[in-house]
Amino acid sequence: MDMNKTNSSIDENEESLVGEVLSDDEVREKKQAIAKWQHSPVGFGSYITKSNDLIQRTKYSLPRNEQKVLFMLMSKIDQKNDKDASKYYSITFNDFAKLTGVRTVDTTYALNLKETIENLENRTFWVKKEPGSKVYRSISWLQKGSEVDFDKKEIRLRFNQDIWKDIAQLTSNYTSYSIEYLLMMKSTYSMRVYEIILSYDNGNRDYGYTNGLVFQPVNDEILNKFSSKRDELTGYKYKKFNIDEFKGLLSAPTEAERESTKSKKKKDPASADKKKFDREKPLSEKYKTFTEFEKNVLKTVKKEINEMTDLWFDYAPARKRGVRKYEYLYIFIKYKTKAEMRDVRSYHDRNTHDDEIVRDSRKKKTQSAEKAAQHITEPFSTDILKMKYRKATTEIRNKADYASYEDKLTDNEKNICNDIFTYTAKILTNTNKCDQAEETLDSLNRIIHDNAGLKTWALGLCVKFTEMFDKATERKSAQYYRTVVYNDTIENSALIIAAGKQKLASLDPAGVFKFDMSVFEDV
């Protein structure tokens, strides 16, 4: 919360910018202290500023790339001089490429850019109408009318005027933090947790809070409570969160909370378009046990905050006596020293994206092949559930390594394979059957993990569909065939994979038994 930190560990950390407004002289001093970051190839504004209400009272989850674009946009706001809420802020194509990792020379770059901006324009977050209220309302981050200029090679976007008071012209009760840390993070949860933590930190100012509203120094009571961490927690601060409430800050509201927002107003004509953006399950439903929450969220958050930011972060769950379920999450933080921050800067220097590529014709083919192979064996991210089905179809086709055997298939088999990819994509992107989509995604990722991709799955389904069509007297509906794909993916994947392996052997008998002798080469 408070920017005027006098704690010794914070004094040693020159990159900290957290809390209330400072005088012009203090702001200049802080900016000079972080000027060493300005040479960064990222080339964006230094820090982001948000009201604490916007951080603490909102519920949302954004895909990583959209979150980074939003952060980048906020970093361009001039807190002192920007007064026009309808102002356009621009992002160059090169900056977008650095954010997303998609090179401007890639054939999918323009499509990826337009879809990312379109999706972000349609995203909403949920905010309590009043403190303590159980009524949430939905607010969009951006105004409609974003522009993609292929002549000037830049994107132009405007913030929703409803949130302007929470991101510009702030004079108190706000949090400001370095964008450099967040852009390196791979987990959107790490980004969100980092800003939540800072919004509850008062530095060394004593406002007389003893009710847990802000982070407080670890005392003997806490050291005794977590005796196994006694030595580790020296010099830390702590704050206790309710686990379910904390999960709520990292995702959309529950269905019950959303129901409370409904009124007798006319239907929003754009509601159908927005429906797919509300499909993600709240974390309280997605990861019901603490073990699941820790495995899928907290461990990554701890790793990234400790490696990439100015904070040391730790946590510990607690439960009431006689109750099995963990109810509380204690979060511990400590600011890094100058020496420790040198390690952080070294980490960022080592991992900063370099957009200059030196030609190396000898390695180009090998590197491209390795990258393609890696993509095939990586699981789908949940982003595929929010894609348009045509883009999802392309993703599935790539995971199935279709190009490697397409020319060996008959025309009929090619048509069947492409139908299978389309049916699967429509299952994954069907906003009316979210549970079925997520179940299919989990099964596909399991198949990818067990079989190094979806090749044998695709070929196995191709075999099944070929046999079905040979026996059928007439074609059935697309819905029927989607159901076949769903059932065989969920329940009969072992049989499908076995059929796919046989089909693959028939396409390339010699290739099936090739052995990679490179495993015996000296490293």
UniProtKB/TrEMBL annotation:
One of its GO terms (molecular function) is DNA-directed DNA polymerase activity. Residues 255-278 have a biased composition (Basic and acidic residues). SUPFAM superfamilies: Winged helix' DNA-binding domain. Residues 1-10 have a biased composition (Polar residues). Residues 11-22 have a biased composition (Acidic residues). InterPro entries: Initiator_Rep_WH1 (IPR000525), WH-like_DNA-bd_sf (IPR036388), WH_DNA-bd_sf (IPR036390). Residues 48-197 form the Initiator Rep protein WH1 domain. GO terms for biological process: DNA replication initiation. Pfam families: Rep3_C (PF21205), Rep3_N (PF01051). Transmembrane segments: none annotated. Residues 1-22, 254-278 are annotated as: Disordered. Belongs to the initiator RepB protein family. This is Protein involved in initiation of plasmid replication. It comes from Gemmiger formicilis.
